[in-house]
Amino acid sequence: MTALKSFASDNNSGAHPAIMEAVVRANQGDLKSYGDDEISINTDEVLKEYFGSRARIHYVTTGTAANVLGIRAVTHTYNSVLCAAQAHINNDECGAPEAFGGIKLVPIPSPDGKLTPGMIAPYLGHVGFVHASQPRVVSITQPTEVGKLYTLKEIEDIVEFAHDRDLLVHMDGARIANACAALDCSFFDMTTALDIDFLSFGGTKNGCLMSEAVIFLNPEIGQGFPYLRKQAMQLVSKMRFVSAQLDAYLTDDLWLKNARQANAMARRLAEKAGAVEGVEIKGTVDCNALFAHLPTEATDILLKKYYFYVWDEHDNTVRWMTSWATTEEMVDEFVEDIKKAMEAVA
Amino acid sequence: MTALKSFASDNNSGAHPAIMEAVVRANQGDLKSYGDDEISINTDEVLKEYFGSRARIHYVTTGTAANVLGIRAVTHTYNSVLCAAQAHINNDECGAPEAFGGIKLVPIPSPDGKLTPGMIAPYLGHVGFVHASQPRVVSITQPTEVGKLYTLKEIEDIVEFAHDRDLLVHMDGARIANACAALDCSFFDMTTALDIDFLSFGGTKNGCLMSEAVIFLNPEIGQGFPYLRKQAMQLVSKMRFVSAQLDAYLTDDLWLKNARQANAMARRLAEKAGAVEGVEIKGTVDCNALFAHLPTEATDILLKKYYFYVWDEHDNTVRWMTSWATTEEMVDEFVEDIKKAMEAVA
Amino acid sequence: MTALKSFASDNNSGAHPAIMEAVVRANQGDLKSYGDDEISINTDEVLKEYFGSRARIHYVTTGTAANVLGIRAVTHTYNSVLCAAQAHINNDECGAPEAFGGIKLVPIPSPDGKLTPGMIAPYLGHVGFVHASQPRVVSITQPTEVGKLYTLKEIEDIVEFAHDRDLLVHMDGARIANACAALDCSFFDMTTALDIDFLSFGGTKNGCLMSEAVIFLNPEIGQGFPYLRKQAMQLVSKMRFVSAQLDAYLTDDLWLKNARQANAMARRLAEKAGAVEGVEIKGTVDCNALFAHLPTEATDILLKKYYFYVWDEHDNTVRWMTSWATTEEMVDEFVEDIKKAMEAVA
Amino acid sequence: MTALKSFASDNNSGAHPAIMEAVVRANQGDLKSYGDDEISINTDEVLKEYFGSRARIHYVTTGTAANVLGIRAVTHTYNSVLCAAQAHINNDECGAPEAFGGIKLVPIPSPDGKLTPGMIAPYLGHVGFVHASQPRVVSITQPTEVGKLYTLKEIEDIVEFAHDRDLLVHMDGARIANACAALDCSFFDMTTALDIDFLSFGGTKNGCLMSEAVIFLNPEIGQGFPYLRKQAMQLVSKMRFVSAQLDAYLTDDLWLKNARQANAMARRLAEKAGAVEGVEIKGTVDCNALFAHLPTEATDILLKKYYFYVWDEHDNTVRWMTSWATTEEMVDEFVEDIKKAMEAVA
Question: Top-level CATH class of D17-253?
């Protein structure tokens, strides 16, 4: 087995050793199934320390499940969900919200994946009009699918705007740790304190094997979720192996260290690669994703050794992504190879 | 953390050490996501050695997902699926087939969960009648939900009957290993050789953490499955951690050793507990589940120390289930406690 | 165009002239669409006179729509609906409840299609158990699919039993008029007075062109129905042509006269055909359907001139059904032909 | 009952007398149900004369049903349907495609509701990428929701583009008659000759009571539709009353006369109202819808007597729509009132 040299996705990384150890440690004798075990019950309590005592936590195995089931639990099929056009729920889940939730998505164009009240407002007509899906949820991704961050104030504005209109706010937090690390705030600051109604809390991309959670913060929503999760094929029998991951993830600030490492490596790559003649880093690097222009020929050379995505063939943009497992050495080696590739095509 | 003394379900056990080691071993550096990694690709090949070169294998994380998605991939919503009334898909998946597949189940009464052509035939009318769901799949569980086994010949008869009527045959093989161990046959003998069209292949209950697969044997069905799995929220990003489990499971006959252990412990428990005055073991013990009559008062005493299910309150039946992790010592201790309980209530 | 001589179904009849006249009369100039017209609003009021002032009425065009949408409006996908195995929703709607509502049906065996609390009780286990669909609705058909009647007391008992267990009661009233005529009671007596929660109110089979309604009597359910009906493709734009039918249907007791005629003709047929040597009428004739045994050869002769269904080939049972449009002459001619057919095969 | 003075929608009109007569005429004695009657079978043949002998015709009662069921019959849930953002299926069906078909819509911005190959192309990436819904259908509306027309050549270009990419083309022809009348072509010219794969054929807006059809022209698609229609609650039992409408509609060019009248009245209104000082007709009037700017105060005066929609409050745009039932006198009276209103607010 040959490990990839990947700057493609934080999904390419394995699991952090401390999380793997927790999984191994969870493997002790018989325990109750389906989340009634001590590990899962304890992890619930740990998560409540982060999200507040009223949080209700439900573990699932994929980010798609977290997004779709969370949203489904709070909507009727005649509701609609407003999201950025490039949102993961709209673009990258093979129609899961529609097919498995009967959910109408209303995609709002946004270059950086961020929404504002002003961008949402035009899509809120037809309330009470029986021919139109009735808006019920605003879904935001933090950080967005292109690695951009909402400030806490920006989120607060969206929540206020939404709540004034009887809309719920969902946060797709598949990479929420990277956002909190970048903004130097806690999960609580980012969600509960801002009155976010429910979120998809991601662990997998930041060091878990596969562990995500739907977290309801608003006490009035999501009551039937346990049945829904079972029905949606997401109730893992040996749940301890999912919950134990998040327990370790939240111990000794592992989540934060991992996210800081990923973010720092992206900045390092941006600075060093951006300094290479002919390479242009697009925009700011808020978290652990960056976008670069470089000549197609240089990209082709790099792709022989490295794994990453050409984001837009038309303007020679590539996406590079770092993870908790990316090291300074890996970045520096990559930058060296970028230099060589650029020289080769100069 | 206090381990349970469980005779409740093979789901209460942890993972076999060899499987856990494989998961740990899979945690090496970056690999491609979503099943494009070497481990997953290699495990596909391993499974083909067991199920034949035409088998197409798709990993999922729960048995519910395996059942629902396999069936959904081969049915239109106007089709129906014939199954025993007590089938897992009918009774234990919180309506998943209906809600997430639009699937009409036709439950056929069967005390031991087994079907025969004669039991199925009366439900096959109305072919071509637009008001009636059109039968498309016969789903059998091997072993059944109450631990009974079809002989290979019985399965062969159902397949022949079904194929003569243009019906597909699905096997819910959540515990297929226990069945193969009991009947002393291979997975191939039990499925491919009998012309089963597709199956849910279970690993979790027999020693994995969470690893199941939908396996299509009939080359003409299930073409769109990869999209369907993604859409159904079951495409795990770090797939290596799922597939590595099955690789280890199939190495050095681990699956068989585990299943034999579970089955042997059930027989041991049946023999020893059945010899206790006042305890009656119901019927034969084909695999790793057994049902016993004993006085309610004795059950209540045992439940203070052990975890198992009262199956039917009306006739004082309990279900006891063993697993790969059940030892002779555990059985013998349990039998001793059964004796004591019976004496206490005598 | 040659009219059938049909004893097959009350669906084979056309529309009563008074109802057709109402449709023609509704065709006056422009009116608002989608039920906001005066005719529909007025018909709502007429229906409230029959079902009570709290009734909420929603018109649809098929009985399948009435059943599926009514039930869907009051259930989560993790709920189940208990019904007789031979219920229309289970047998004759091509899987619509499952496919378009994600509804889990729990079919209860019943030879005459009637349920009792005692028959329902065994299916109510597993409340709060996340693996099992949670019972929410008991659906009864009055009269049943084989023409049998619940007494008012029998319905009352089911409602009491259901409400005690937090279950709603749905009545499939596709032929409710025939039931009321037979039991000599009003719609109110049959539904609102018995605390039925919601019903499918049928007009089509008893003289309308196509007009059915979902009627919610329980004020706490069905709130989002207008959106659901639109989404379910059942919001007819020129609604006046649907509602006008029910207005006429309820004027001058037309519904009652029609139903009495249908019932009377069934009784007449039962008496006269039952008196023919070799013909046996099975059971009582409660409404407008009857079942008869006669030799296959006689059936074959009759089918050359008449249209009706062979109900069960194995025991030579045929179903005969009368409608509002069946006349004494039609019955008598049919009986004469039955006699001749029986003589021919004697 | 007071008829509206409506310029709001062609849905506000009643039925054409000839069509109502056909419905009355269809009310003769017993006929088979569910479309097996002579009237429906005959109407099938009539429609084949218009759409070609390979056309397969299925009647439904609403345009929403025609759109959703046609599309659903040719898609997997992991497919997507490309349409204009303002398409009826995206905007005006309360999420029916998503909820009742599991269909992913990809809305493409288009001011006049028309698509071109160039507008569609950017949305066709990710073929074979398991995370993305796979494009399968391009849906166009002719005329569009704002009354604009594709030329036959424009449609031909879309079809060629789509078929080259293995996409099917659906035409939402709720008002196809108005389009054919305006372009002076036949239904065949507009659909079959251009290789359209399937269409929603509308009758209701142009003089029927409620009669629409899903028509499959491509012989390789839509095979299971009869089951799907039944399951989708759209199989009307007394189908003759639906099909008879279309028979009359297609007799003696009634469809064409009606559509020409509606179109002519829209042009008349555009010309005469456009000549009123201060009133501006926006763009061309292709069919029977027109959009006008006039002062809010004038609109308010008119709304006291007439029924029509304010389309955009921000720029004082109103929509006026004519129908087969609109007369020169009605237009002229309306124009007089427009003049008065404008003078009053001058």
Answer: alpha beta
